[in-house]
Specification:
The complex is a heterodimer of chains A (250) and B (95). Chain A is built from 11 helices and 5 strands. Chain A folds into 2 domains: 1-100, no CATH class; 102-250, no CATH class. In chain A, a hairpin with a 4-residue loop joins strand 3 and strand 4. Chain A has helices at residues 2-20, 29-49, 51-72, 87-92, 96-99, 102-117, 157-165, 175-183, 206-216, 221-227, 233-242; strands at residues 142-144, 149-152, 189-194, 199-204, 246-249. Chain B is an alpha+beta fold and 95 residues long. Helix content of chain B is 41%, strand content 11%. Chain B has helices at 3-27, 81-94; strands at 29-33, 65-69. The longest helix of chain B has 25 residues, at 3-27. Chain B is elongated. Classes of the chains: A mainly alpha (250), B alpha+beta (95). At the A-B interface, strand 4, helix 10 and helix 11 of A face helix 1 of B.
């Protein structure tokens, strides 16, 4: 009985391997049906995870990208939403990057948004704020939402993202709309985090970006105040609470 | 009290004020549809095409909302959610 099970498992494993081996030259038509199905599922999944990128490059390019991505990164968890992390790197090394260098940043932006939108929200432990009244600020640390990520771009990725997300799938932004976005100056620093109701994107300035990085690097409140003496901590903590960025102080 | 502790105390005061005032403020407000200028909506719209503040692209889109003081929505020319949803469904059915 157990020998039979191993044999079936071996067969299943080999079969899956053949399906995932997208360049298989066996030419088996039955296998090709499964492979085509895999490619279409991969492309649709990537389009869901990267809707703005999909609008920008079109269906055919998404098919090619998903095909290449399957070679670099196989789905592991059984949930297609977990798949696609390596797409920004793949685009960076593709022919698309020379002509459309902003696509890498758009893809990175979308992946971070995708991860945050699937993350659990943690409500603020307001009692822990009392730690700010403690003497030992060297031992007081701010804990941010686990989903909070910050990223930089030299392109107006937030504007491009908003413009495309406000269109239906079939609509393409006009040249004038794209020019307006490209000519609009953004700070180039973005924070994306899961809030109580929505996934929020906030454009921040350099000083706030560095402050957040300091928190993520594990600096204590005392160290943060030493390194960023001009930063308005009081105003920031109020706005960070409103933005659902802080879970607790420890 | 040194300078850092003074800053931390000010931060604590601001933080506590924010924590205390946020729910009270929300309790005195309501979602008002059809009054938001393009890019100035709060959160997701009725159509479900976006889920973030500031993503509306049309002035006074009936599917977009802003939080306003309770009782002030209709006087601003807006609709409360029930009416907005009803109109949205009617519009959707008409195609």
């Amino acid at each position: 009985m157990s020998g039979g099970n191993i044999s079936v498992m071996d067969y299943q494993s080999q079969f899956l391997n053949e399906i995932y081996h997208v360049d298989s030259t066996l030419g088996d038509k039955g296998l090709q049906v499964y492979q085509n199905n895999l490619h279409m599922t991969a492309m649709l999944s990537l389009t869901v995870t990267y809707p703005v990128l999909a609008q920008m490059v079109g269906e055919q390019a998404m098919f090619v990208l998903s095909h290449r991505l399957l070679r670099a990164e196989l789905p592991e968890s059984g949930d297609w939403a977990d798949w696609g992390q390596q797409l920004p790197a793949l685009i960076r090394n593709s022919e698309l990057n020379a002509e459309h260098p902003y696509l890498v940043d758009i893809a990175q932006f979308e992946w971070v948004f995708h991860l945050a939108s699937r993350s659990q929200f943690h409500a603020l432990n307001s009692a822990s704020l009392q730690r700010l009244a403690d003497e030992a600020l060297e031992q007081t640390f701010i804990t941010l939402q686990p989903s909070l990520k910050y990223l930089r771009s030299s392109y107006p990725v937030h504007g491009l993202w908003r413009l495309h997300r406000s269109q239906t799938e079939q609509e393409v932004p006009s040249r004038q709309q794209l020019e307006n976005v490209m000519n609009h100056q953004e700070t180039g620093c973005y924070v994306i985090a899961q809030g109580a109701h929505n996934t929020n994107i906030v454009e921040v300035y350099e000083d706030e970006f560095n402050w957040l990085r300091g928190i993520s690097d594990g600096l204590s409140v005392a160290a943060l105040l030493d390194i960023f003496p001009a930063f308005d901590f009081a105003a920031w903590i109020a706005s960070a609470i409103q933005r659902d960025w802080i879970t607790h102080l420890e | 009290m040194n300078h850092k502790h003074a800053i931390a105390a000010a931060a604590l005061a601001m933080a506590l004020t924010t924590v205390v005032s946020a729910p009270a403020e929300a309790a005195g407000k309501e979602k008002c549809y059809g009054i938001a200028a393009a890019g100035q909506n709060d959160c997701g719209n009725l159509a479900g095409t976006h889920s973030c503040a500031g993503q509306s692209t049309m002035d006074k889109d009936p599917g977009e909302w802003k939080l306003v003081a309770k009782g002030s929505c209709e006087s601003m020319g807006g609709m409360l959610k029930a009416e907005a949803k009803k109109r949205y469904e009617e519009k959707k059915q008409k195609g």
